[in-house]
Amino acid sequence: MYNRRMVLYFIAACLFTFTLQIVVFGANYGRSLETNLFVAFVFCCYILFHYTKMSEDILLKGITCVGIIVFIIQVFQQLNPQMAIFGVFTEKMKEETGVGDNFIVSMRNGLYRFKLITAQLPLLLFSYYFSKMLSKFKYTYILLVCIFAASLYLMLTRMFMICMFICAIYIYLSQRKQIKSKFAIAILVTIACAGLITYSDALFANLFDSKESDIEYSSSARINCLPFIWSQAVSNPILFFIGHGYDEALWEWGFGLGYWWNDLGVLGQVYTYGIIWVLIYFKLAYNLLSKFKKLIPIYIRGYVFGCLCICYMMPSYASNLTQTLIWCVVLYISDLYISNSRKIINNAV
Length: 349
Known about the structure:
Elements: H1 4-24, H2 33-52, H3 56-79, H4 91-97, E1 107-108, E2 111-112, H5 120-135, H6 139-154, H7 158-175, H8 182-198, H9 200-204, H10 215-233, H11 237-242, H12 249-257, H13 269-272, H14 275-291, H15 298-309, H16 321-348
Helix pairs in contact: 1-2, 2-16, 3-6, 5-6, 5-7, 5-15, 7-15, 14-15
């Protein structure tokens, strides 16, 4: 359990900030307070994995089944939006936003933005099967890579599409010497590139067009939000280190000023969880990408590197429960490889 201490800190930080808001500041349940508590419980899955001695193969097969089910639901709801029941606007959300009764969910690039599950799940699966495909060319791996790439696309989140390409490039460059079917991979890449170029207008035209989307607004909002959130974080020197938790002011700043802490990714977590939390994240990323580079599987490093590249917009964990669970899986699998490598070294000695 190499990452045990850091995970225990995450659990303690979540429970502390939850207690701080309830006991000291007298906050009521809601406004992500429950999420804060549940995140602590989800981090306990890391300990549970170790206790049950879960294998990497079983974990990834289970996640793969979930990912395929999510993809099937995504396709069905895109084809039958009136029958959609997952990721749609509730009556309460319609009242808060002032949309009509027939409103289903927002759209982008002519598609519905159903958010069934966090994008980190198909991203990890894409990284895993892309790495497997490079090592051993099989039609099953090609199919799964396409499924999870399509699943990520249907979430219609630009930063995760960019993140997916970053993961693919990182894995390919790290694994290029281990590619066995180089000719087949070259043909596959050529076909994929040709398809993306041919249908680029239909797939990405409005997605990355600032006139048709909120790219310019999102960028300026983050630039203005960062100094404001950090100034609020340092207003209390003690809580700057250990976190303020999810207090009511976060929603007042969001609805009133348009400054949402969760738009800043891990940099926004400095308010809710403190600067120590943020520093631990970068320490974990350094360990997985550099210190134990030779011990950690390439798909894990590709996933971590991709998430690191967008961490200023989306944190790698604690933003929601599924995202946190995926991070626990990443840490646990990393532990398995580190532990196995140390056993081999000890036996050799």
